[in-house]
Design brief:
Layout (H helix, E strand, L loop, with lengths): L3 E11 L4 E6 L4 H4 L5 E5 L7 E11 L2 E6 L5 H4 L6 E5 L13 H4 L3 E4 L4 E9 L6 E5 L5 E5 L5 E5 L4 E4 L8
Parallel strand pairs: 7-12
Antiparallel strand pairs: 1-2, 1-6, 2-5, 3-4, 3-6, 4-5, 7-8, 8-9, 9-10, 11-12
GO molecular function, one term: ribosome binding
Subunit structure: Binds ribosomal protein uS19.
Protein name: Ribosome maturation factor RimM
Length: 172
């Protein structure tokens, strides 16, 4: 069974020529929304996704504006409001060493170099210079782990484990 990954949400139409306003959910909008790329629209009440080909992409304010081949007026795209744009796992590109997709990190167990279990990654924040992994501890509290070389020592996506060297005060 094919696994699907969100790349954006269609929140509205834009103009009368079939453009849709998208809140992007991808780290690679230039790649995902490139002219000629195939995306899949998942509408709430539909069982099957609608395959579309990107005709154009531009950024306007904080939105990505997309148009699709064969959908050249507002009446044809109106029904897509609220739908999710997704790509199949087979379309995910290779990442450089030390780079991971969010789905590979979320759910990983975090342990210290001494073998103490810290908790499980529940969320990833992207506030600026580096990502911050939110780790839910067994006692229900959360710990914020910065994804930096000094702290994160090893990531094993196959075994779903992350080894860290906590900075002083990090786990308190």
């Amino acid at each position: 069974m094919e696994k699907w990954f969100n790349v954006g949400k269609i929140v509205n139409t834009h103009g009368i020529r079939g453009e849709v306003r998208v809140i992007s959910r991808t780290d690679f909008p230039e790649e995902r929304y490139k002219k000629g790329n195939t995306l899949y629209i998942f509408m709430e009440k539909s069982k099957e996704p609608i395959e579309v080909i990107v005709k154009s992409h531009r950024v306007h304010k904080s939105f990505d504006l997309l148009s699709f081949e064969g959908y050249d007026n507002i009446n044809l795209v109106e029904k897509f409001k609220g739908a999710m744009l997704k790509v199949p796992e087979s379309q995910l590109g290779e990442l450089n060493e030390g780079e991971y997709y969010f789905h590979e990190i979320i759910g990983c167990t975090v342990v210290t170099e001494e073998g103490e279990t810290v908790g499980t990654v529940s969320e990833i924040l992207t506030p600026g210079a580096n990502d911050v992994w939110v780790v839910k501890r067994n006692n229900g509290k959360e710990v914020l782990i910065p994804y930096i070389e000094d702290v994160v020592k090893n990531v094993d996506v196959e075994r779903k484990t992350i080894t860290i060297r906590p900075m002083e005060g990090l786990l308190e």
